[in-house]
Specification:
By secondary structure, the protein is α/β, with parallel strands linked by helices. The protein is 41% helix and 16% strand. It is built from 26 helices and 22 strands.
Length: 718
């Protein structure tokens, strides 16, 4: 491969014949825009668009080094001061599609000679939908759209544009779509064949293209393989086009991770950057090379104290291989067992196959024993879904002992098979539109004000799922998030499991019991916002969002409801939540035949467990939380939780009774305070910001540590 010469000191110059490489004289800018005004919406570094430049640099020389943009303010300033580029490319995802086209439309109006290229997965599969997409969304803002993978087609497009006008290039490159200037015809050639060796896309990190983004709080993002062998029809990668998995060489991944680690170490230590890495692979751990990647991650942790958390979706098969890989970085990667549904007819409708529930339980238990968190995902309102099926899926996953369930609504992505009208009609999908959380803003570009927001289309009704049922499912999802996820009340769960009581039975009891005033208020407001966020008409919602953009930016509208209201339940109604956890637990224990009078050991254990968890969370999400809190302890809650991690809780409560009372101490450490401060600085201190924070960090990294010094002993110095 020809050397990439983009100004990095790490580049190794290889011999090459200058006459064999074309020189691109065009000024090229590449943009992966994100909203910034409420908080940075997509915190990840613009690795994918920068990869377009590094691949292009393997087949041509740039007279002008391509410029990479992430923040709209930077792009607006550059357009004012540096003149227009010859070619500007925009990523086009569900979270920035309207932002990209809004900027593109202004640029095209002011600088019609600039060629505008879009690319990304927010684009329909079928030609009829593609043509409609051009007329409805892209016309007047886009010269070309790269369908499918972008590197090869974009490099070809640049070389053609090097000496030709766009109208001479249109309809000449596989995978590069376009519309004639008179808007009479749309060209949609078949996608370019995919890259099967990702060595053809050199690292934009080691090429120096992303250096400026480290100190600005960006989360490093890498890809070690592309593609997915599974065929889920709600997913962009469910198409045959993506079925083959392409991989990056091990040495490329290692060099990239060490480069990032050296950059991140001082920033993390200074509290400027979050101690995270995102890996975009769809099935991490399934392939032998992933073990090598985890080995490098372990090296980076030793050398740079980074990354503390790796966000990635682990593989759906090859579980032993996945466990072996992630075991090298214990506590860093959460093991996923995502099912979307456990109902056979729903899975058949979405062309998905799951492993059986016994294997699911094995995954979760092995994860706990290896010190690795586990999670699963459920999508509400998939084809043929119902309230009962959704509840049954939640029940099965909790019985399988996953630490966390992520509940999503079905979004109809343009690039998925579900987007087609025939599919909607077949399954009776009733949809509404909503504003995507954090994806809205207003910017001034070349003297024009842009007010825009991103919308997604979600399914809220099915033949066997009424809208009323949908609302009840959303309330249950909120209870799962607030009471179950992350072991919020894990010791109570351990007592219930010891008595053969399913967690879902407890949560259903929580849902129907009388709620305290604060909790009732929060739940009522959750349902009101659920209704208010959903609109039948896309254009009406877009108009409303543009007129009320400041209310969205200010946090009054457009929040992620599960995240925000989970935080509100914790911060505004924690005592009510704790009381509800106790009363519901005692109710289901009574039905199971346990003695639950006020003096009964199991009742005393449940109450102490609830207070234990309440104190772990108490005042953590406030400006100046107390460093130390105390509880008089009669039971060994830590032993109960350890037994739960091993799946060996005992129904004999005497096992957990302490020989004599002790003082349990809850400490918010300096490291936890620093973590909270770093995230709060970037995400904000509102309920929405802290709710988002809970999705980014391990619960243990931000809730109080529990210590039991000894009989009658106070906490001592903090």
């Amino acid at each position: 491969m020809t050397t990439v010469l983009l100004g990095t000191p790490q580049a190794t110059v290889a011999p090459r014949r200058p006459d064999m490489r074309p020189v691109l004289r065009l000024k090229v800018w590449l943009c992966d825009l994100t909203y910034t005004q409420q908080a940075v919406s997509a915190e990840t570094m613009p690795q994918a668009v920068a990869g377009l430049a590094t691949h292009a640099a393997t087949v041509m020389d740039f007279e002008h080094t391509p410029r990479i943009f992430k923040f709209p303010e930077d792009l607006a300033a550059a357009l004012e001061t540096d003149g227009p580029p010859d070619v500007i490319g925009f990523s086009h995802y569900i979270w920035n599609a309207h932002l990209s086209t809004a900027f593109a439309r202004v640029i095209k109006d002011r600088f019609p000679q600039t060629t505008i290229v879009m690319g990304g997965p927010h684009y329909p599969i079928l030609r009829t939908d593609q043509v409609a997409f051009w007329y409805q969304r892209l016309a007047g803002a886009t010269d070309f759209y790269v369908a499918g993978e972008g590197e090869l087609a974009f490099a070809d497009l640049l070389l053609r544009l090097n000496g030709k006008a766009p109208e001479k290039v249109r309809d000449t490159i596989p995978g590069v779509h376009g519309m004639t200037p008179d808007r009479r015809e749309v060209f949609t050639p078949q996608p370019r064949a995919r890259i099967l060796d990702l060595h053809q896309v050199p690292s934009p990190y080691t090429a120096g293209l992303l250096d400026d983004f480290f100190a600005r709080g960006g989360v490093p993002t890498i890809t070690t393989n592309r593609g997915c062998p599974f065929t889920c029809n709600f997913c962009t990668e469910g198409e045959y086009y993506f079925s083959k998995v392409a991989k990056r060489p091990r040495e490329d991944v290692a060099a990239e991770l060490h480069y990032i680690g050296r950059k991140m170490a001082p920033l993390v230590a200074a509290g400027i950057a979050r101690n995270e890495l995102l890996i975009t692979d769809s099935n991490f751990g399934m392939f032998p090379e992933d073990k090598d990647t985890c080995s490098v991650l372990a090296e980076c942790q030793r050398l740079y104290d980074w990354p503390r958390t790796v966000n990635v979706t682990t593989g759906k098969n090859q579980r032993e291989r996945v466990l072996e890989a992630v075991a090298q970085v214990p506590g860093t990667i959460s093991l996923s067992g995502s099912v979307q549904s456990l109902d056979a007819s729903v899975l058949e409708a979405v062309q998905r196959k799951n492993i059986n529930i016994e294997k699911m339980m094995e995954i979760a238990l092995q994860s706990a024993q290896a010190g690795t968190a586990s999670y699963s995902e459920v999508i509400l309102a998939l084809p043929d879904d119902s309230k009962r099926k959704h509840f049954d899926s939640l029940r099965g996953l909790m019985d399988a002992r996953f630490d966390r369930l992520n509940m999503f609504q079905l979004t109809l992505l343009p690039s998925s098979a579900m987007y087609a009208q025939a599919f909607r009609a077949k399954w009776g999908l009733g949809t509404k539109w909503r504003v995507i959380p954090r994806c809205f803003g207003r910017y001034t570009v070349l003297g024009c004000e842009i007010r825009t927001a991103e919308l997604d289309e979600v399914c809220v009704e099915l033949p066997n799922l009424s809208y009323a049922d949908y609302r009840e499912c959303r309330v249950m999802d909120l209870f799962v998030a607030s009471l179950y996820n992350g072991g919020t009340f894990g010791a109570i769960l351990a007592v219930l499991r010891a008595h053969k009581i399913a967690p879902m039975a407890w949560l259903e009891e929580c849902r129907v019991q009388e709620h305290g005033a604060d909790l009732a208020r929060v739940l009522e407001e959750f349902l009101c916002e659920t209704d208010a966020q959903l609109w039948r008409e896309r254009d009406g919602l877009m108009s409303y969002a543009a007129k009320n953009i400041d209310r969205y930016i200010g946090g009054e509208l457009g929040n992620n409801l599960l995240y925000t209201y989970r935080m509100r339940m914790i911060s505004e109604a924690l005592h009510d939540l704790s009381e509800l956890a106790v009363s519901a637990a005692l109710a289901v224990l009574r039905r199971a035949g346990a003695a639950t009078g006020s003096s009964a050991l199991v009742a005393r254990l449940v109450r102490e467990a609830a207070t234990h968890h309440e104190l772990k969370l108490s005042q953590v999400f406030t400006a100046d939380p107390p460093a130390v809190l105390e509880q008089k302890a009669a039971f060994d809650i830590e032993q109960l939780l350890a037994d739960a991690r091993a799946g060996a809780e005992s129904p004999d409560v005497r096992r957990y009774r302490l020989p004599e009372p002790m003082t349990r101490v809850f400490v918010l450490t300096d490291r936890q305070r620093a973590t909270l401060h770093t995230y709060a600085t970037q995400l904000g201190t509102s309920a929405a910001g802290f709710g988002w924070l809970l999705t980014k960090v391990r619960f243990a990294d931000i809730v109080r540590e529990v210590r039991t010094p000894g009989p009658g002993v106070g906490p001592g110095p903090s």
